[in-house]
Design brief:
Helices cover 26% and strands 17% of the residues. It is an alpha+beta fold and 123 residues long. It has a three-stranded antiparallel sheet with strand order 2-1-3. Strands 4-5 form a two-stranded antiparallel ribbon. Strand 1 and strand 2 form a beta hairpin.
Length: 123
């Protein structure tokens, strides 16, 4: 964090086959990073930190494309992907899967519309 902005870890190349993408924000990390820190964007809702079962149900290994989000606030790609308010990091363009029902219910109770990251819910 050279300039004080929060950011996610960039996974090393040898771990590329193990990478997982968050089903809520599409951030890509290793399972170890999700276990150690959770998702820096969604931890309050997903609560993955220290929970292998939660990591399995709230992330996916099936994703397409990778975006390096360097300046979340001004990036047009960030706006297009709905990641503009998130931390810097590597994001999947598309993630296969849905968050668990309890997470969808929590989002709904907070007045947040859940949009799957597989691009099936087009505005």
């Amino acid at each position: 964090m050279a300039d004080g902005q929060p950011q996610a870890a960039i996974p090393p190349q040898p771990k590329a086959r193990q990478l997982r993408a968050c089903l809520l924000c599409s951030l890509i990390q290793t399972p170890g990073d999700f276990r150690k820190s959770g998702c820096p964007n969604c931890e309050e809702i997903l609560q993955m930190k220290g929970s292998p079962d939660r990591i399995q149900s709230c992330t996916s290994t099936y994703f397409d494309g990778i975006i390096a989000l360097i300046d979340p606030e001004t990036s047009w790609v960030g706006r297009w992907q709905r990641t503009s308010g998130n931390v810097r990091g590597m994001y999947a363009v598309r993630v296969k899967g849905r968050v668990p029902e309890d997470v969808e219910a929590e989002l709904e109770s907070r007045g947040i519309k859940y949009r799957p990251r597989d691009q099936t819910d087009i505005d």
